[in-house]
Input
Amino acid sequence: MRSRAVWSAVLAGVVLALPFLGVDDYYLHLLIMAGLFFLLAAGMNLLLTAGQLNLGHTAFFGIGAYASALLSLHFSLSPLWTLPTAAAFTGFVGYLLGRLTLKLRGAYFVLVTVGFAEVIRLVATNWMDLTQGPMGLAGVPPFNLGTERWTLVSKRDYYYLMAVTAGGTLFLTSRLLGSRVGRALAAIQSNESLAESSGISAYTHTMLAMVVSCTLAGAAGGFYAHYITFLSPELFGFQNTVTMAVMVVAGGQGMVLGPAVGSLVFTFVPELLRMATFYRMLLYGVILLLVVMYMPRGLVFYLKALLRGRAGAPVSSEDAGAGFAPEALVHGDSAALAVRGVTVRFGGLAAVDDLSLGLGRGEILALIGPNGAGKSTAFNVITGFQAADAGRVEFDGADITGLPPYRIAERGLVRMFQRTSVFPEAPALANVLTACHRLARTRLWELIFLTHAYREEERRHRERALGLLHFVGLGRKVGEAAKNLSCGEQRLLGLAIALAPDPSVLLLDEPAAGLNAVETGELMHLIETIRGRGLSVLLVEHDMKLVMGLCDRVVVLNYGVRIAEGTPAEIQRHPEVVRAYLGSGEILADA
Amino acid sequence: MKISKVITLIVLAAFAGVLAAGALQAQTKEPIKVGMIQPLSGPIAAAGSYITNGAKIAVERINAKGGVLGRPLELIIEDNKSDPAETRNAAEKLIVRDKVPVIIGAWGSSMTLAMMPLAAQHGIPLVVETSSSGKITDPKTPGQKVVSRISPTSELEAVGAGALIPTLGMKKIGYLAVNTDWGRGAVAAFGEAFKKNGATVEAVEYVGQADTDFYAQLTKFKAAGVDSVVITDDAPKAAKMLQQMKELGLNVKVLVTGGSAWPDSIVQLAGAKAAEGAMFINFFNPYDAAMAGDPEASRAYVEDWKKKGLPWIGVVEGMRGFDAVYVVAKAIEAAKEPTAPKIMAALKTLEARGLYGLNKFDQNGQSYCNIIVTQVKDGKYSVVAMTPSSKLWEMSAAK
Amino acid sequence: MLAELVQHIVNGLIVGGGYALMGIGLTLIFGIMRVVNFAHGEFFMMGAFFLFTLFSLWGVNFFLASVLSVIGVGLVGAVVERVILRRLRLQPIEIPMLATVALSVIIQNAAILLWDPSPKTIRHVFSPLPLTLGPIHVVSIRIFAGLVAVALILGSHLLIQKTRIGRAMRATFQDTDMARLTGVDVDKVYMFTFAFGAALAGASGALLGAVFWVYPAMGDLAALKSFAVVIMGGLGNFLGAIVGGLLLGVSESLGAGYISSGYKDAIGFVLIILLLLWRPQGLFGKKVIHR
Output
């Protein structure tokens, strides 16, 4: 922490002193342009952290530029007011586009943003009355600090204005990325279902990233308008977006410094390549290709690795003291879960047919049945991943049918997934810390300004995460990337993740799948402890030893219909159940 | 991974190498530097390359005769990638790093407009060789005071060709213009001229710079029953439009404005059959040196162009670069000093015979050039009529 | 009035055929390889330039030159897949996307250096005079282009449905891992898919280059249009690409003819945005559950 503050101070000092160190106007201009691209790349990077690539970003740049220019031209307002207004307006446009498109994923989102930018470009080119079209908007007033007397004239003035703006952006993005917002965004990209189950609303967070990103782009556009004082529809060209995307990816996506390094490098490289005028663009493309092929994590990532002498992020295996009772982290409010008459049809087939079951407070209930009996579907309905065609789900008396997964998680009903139960790239500690999201009480502004309350909260959550890792037995692996853990360890991590949001009801989807006898035994012990702390548990399982040894009651499904319910001993002897399992290879263990 | 470390080091070393090369190149020598900004990449790169080549021919001629003020001229050419923001970057570099006292450029009107405020801020004179937007010489436009433009505006074209319109027999006109400052300005200017001469513009359709298919617009014209089509666009697009007119059975009179399209280029691009009868507004006749303001220079220019094996269709574009360099050279001679303020003053009072005609600048920095109406007759170049630049100067003095 | 309408539609269908070819290639590449190919426009351009070089510069027979051009672009596609895309297969989706962006910059600028940036006409063998069907005029080269497009589309359909490699492609499209397990050489499928997609784009470029003209930046707009086509039809959907391509061609023609030609290029994208609001998976795409 200390060294980072020192480095920041040194860097800030250098940046501020540059105009006096003999750097001429041309380089200052390049630095200003690099700063503009940094604002754009930083915004793009924020959204990319959540896995959404916005290749229409230049449209927002242009919207901000034209908005600020037109406001100051037509209403004779000072750019000091029009620039922030334009930025806010652009953020709003981003919100509107987000509403329309953020439900799309992956390539669809990318292509729609490309289309959006094209449409805006054509509007700007053809709506002559508003934008002067291809003739361009000349005579945009230069930036001033409120009145014409305070007009910024020299290159140095604009350089400092940009330095302040860029510094602010760097601060904002580093705060966002380094906080639970950043963790949430990364989680959404990494494993969206798991993020939702932990109480993270993918839509809300990506929308936040989108609005911030577009506001930054609008601010950059406004700056450009009052610096260059001439606008034309070429601003909306795809070339700009390509440049930004290159800066983000080559700089290092998901990293705070990535866009900064990317924007500096890829503003100066084309300028330096002016020497080779006729080969310049070709060379630029080749460099880009090499970077993408051999350094896909970005320059910052590999530079950091070079400096540290190892590849990959630093891993500190903290063995936090066990001086606190990990069990204290787990306590249930003993809620009940009721499923009433739920039916789900896929085409003509009923995957779940009029299913009703009840989970009592502090109970461990198993849902078993042959493959294809509808157990996963039932789980999906309960946790909000699947809409039911009929029936209701009630949690603690309240109707939660049809709520989105993150809302259900917020109420205290958390699910552990069957296979994809972790965030693979992140270390174990980060995995669990991310899942503490639901517990956060501090607001966004506190997060940005690093208030005492926020820092306390982060500390508490961190301790909670460490404690939970100890609880499940992963105390030695807190710094290990989740994908490097063994299958059994990943399962334990998944359990810790599920416990992080402090649930009252836990849904476990085949927790023992792939575990050997020893691991299964450990798992059973953990679940029993969890129940002992007051949580109710509903699990789907095929491992009969676990079911018979652990559960209070069992519900049996076959072809979507409940065919039996009772204690493990009763179920074992139930003729319907035996018939359902005959021939499927399942063996009912002796109780 | 090891290989990525290697790549990182190579990339960093490449930067260092290029930086060093740049440092070496930046040593100032004897020559007088003249900056030039043209689109050398992007959709209009062809035009940019013609103009640059014309400029180079002029520089070689001048240096062969001993240069300017006893020193050779050096053209520093920057590519604006057909983009206004890049134009400003290029201008910034030329002014601050290369310290040029004068800049020729930047082809497209929006590109030129983008660098005008910067040039004015530094007091660097701009010689505009192609841009046609009236804004560039409008006193209300920021930066106008440093502009000296040798290319005509669309208004001037329209005035110069105006008297000829009744003789062309155009009554119901369909207008196809490229959707840029140039196209829109021409539509406005020529629209006026047509109205004054009793013709009506039935339909105006704008096409994108990269468009290749004009069937929709031409079908519309056909349905509207036009008897002539006016085109403001570059040669390849105009050629395509002519071809497609024939393909759709729209066999009407055609007039192409702007100076870039001319009989030889259209015959080559569209074929003699499609081009037959089409008329063009040009500013330069490569076949008749006497038409130019400086016949000897015109002859020499065309010879050099042929000798270098440059594409013949570009010869009427290249002359813009040629003339611009000569205007700059003569201004420097008159200024006796290759500094920006002196050159600017010299340009204001300069009178130089060139390929455009008589190059001199009115109070807004605008020059008046020859307006020549040409036509494809029997598959060959022919002149219909001409309004010499001297006449246009007279007309403006009379106003 | 009717004549005008029909003429617009005929115009639009022929250009739409070219769009459809581009769209098929792009949608196959995405559907099977999960790669958004931003260099698709450059394959389009290469097809045109190869034809120009072979036919206009070297005097090879027009039809032979066309075939060779298409094959040539396919070979380039195969090389690109093998050398560049293969090693990026496991990376998140934006990495191969940006690799294709870089590729498009390289190819376009290489074209500017190899042939100069001025537009070139391909003086094809067909008569420039139109064939008339009453008031409707169509020129022979466009009929040729339309017929070839139809032939290629049918051929692609047959290839995918009836041949072994087509079956392998379909298997890989549905479930890559399963395909691998059942003995499909997924590497070969990927390479073939990319080469095939590139070849179709090259064919579209050669055809449209002969109808219009040839210049290095010609792929830019074509690429954007093919993205529009693919979104409309649903990413990975063969039929959707065909319908989308034709639809785009006709709506552009009608839009330019009756509304405004300035916004012609926007029509495609506005359609997409409206369509995606109504059906997020495209006209024919499969609905995927997203939360």
User: Anything to note?
Assistant: Residues 2-220 of chain C form one domain. Chain C has one domain: 2-220. Strands of chain C lie at 130-133, 136-139. Chain C touches chain B at residues 1, 3-4, 7-8, 11, 15, 109, 112, 116-119, 121, 123, 128-130, 132, 137-139, 142, 208, 212-213, 215, 217-218, 220-221, 252-257, 261-262, 264-265 (CB under 8 Å).
